[in-house]
Specification:
Elements (H helix, E strand, L loop, with lengths): L1 H9 L4 H13 L10 H20 L4 H8 L5 E7 L4 H16 L3 E7 L4 H5 L11 E6 L5 E5 L4 H14 L4 H14 L2 H11 L2
Parallel strand pairs: 1-2
Antiparallel strand pairs: 1-3, 3-4
Length: 198
């Protein structure tokens, strides 16, 4: 596992590098990932708009900012993502803002399809759901915990919808986006900080 983590971090992006990579691919008519489709490009373009908005509007809650400022050991936050993923577009800006608050957090982002060995260690119900945040002790590279792909209320929203309708369709996706918009990143911040209380 250590080797997989080291390899992933050696080929990781900073948040800015990740954003630049996704933007550049969109200009070339491509999405991140090993599969290229019109749908994935369309989702990437939608997410680009979301990311720009969230980068400007997301705020770290004062209590969370305080907790992050009080960290006393170094952590690596390794996130598995892809540019076409709607949940990643909602969550990555939050994680980035949180990481920016503390000198003790080093945010690194890797692409799921380029890191299959890593992704396979962090499946959700057997699936390669993203984004996935892996919190590591920077000194030892030991895994402390992981989080994702969604905050609990968003996970429940989709699970309940799927149970009632048998599918996750466009209606469900719109409801999920509304939930994210209303929540303003607060649940994600609280859930991640609860895991950091170690």
């Amino acid at each position: 596992m250590k080797n997989i983590l080291v390899k992933a971090q050696d080929h990781s992006f900073s948040y800015k590098e990740y954003r630049d990579c996704v933007s550049k691919l969109i200009l070339e008519g491509k999405s991140t990932g090993h599969t290229q489709t019109e749908d994935l490009l369309h989702y990437s373009e939608l997410n680009e708009t979301r990311l720009k908005r969230l980068d400007k509007t997301i705020k770290v809650v004062p209590e969370i900012e305080q907790q992050l400022s009080n960290l006393s050991k170094k952590y690596t936050w390794l996130v598995i993502s892809e540019g076409w993923c709607g949940d990643a577009a909602q969550i990555l800006p939050i994680i980035n803002k949180m990481a920016e608050v503390s000198d003790f957090i080093n945010l690194k982002i890797v692409l799921r399809d380029d890191n299959d060995e890593l992704m396979s260690q962090f499946l959700t119900n057997g699936g390669k759901a993203i984004p996935k945040l892996i919190i590591l002790d920077s000194e030892t590279n030991e895994i402390i915990t992981d989080w994702g792909p969604r905050p609990e209320p968003a996970r429940k929203l989709i699970a309940d919808y799927k149970a009632a309708n048998g599918v996750v369709d466009e209606i469900a996706k719109v409801e999920l986006q509304k939930w994210y918009l209303h929540d303003k990143g607060i649940t994600t911040q609280n859930e991640i900080m609860a895991l950091m209380a170690i």
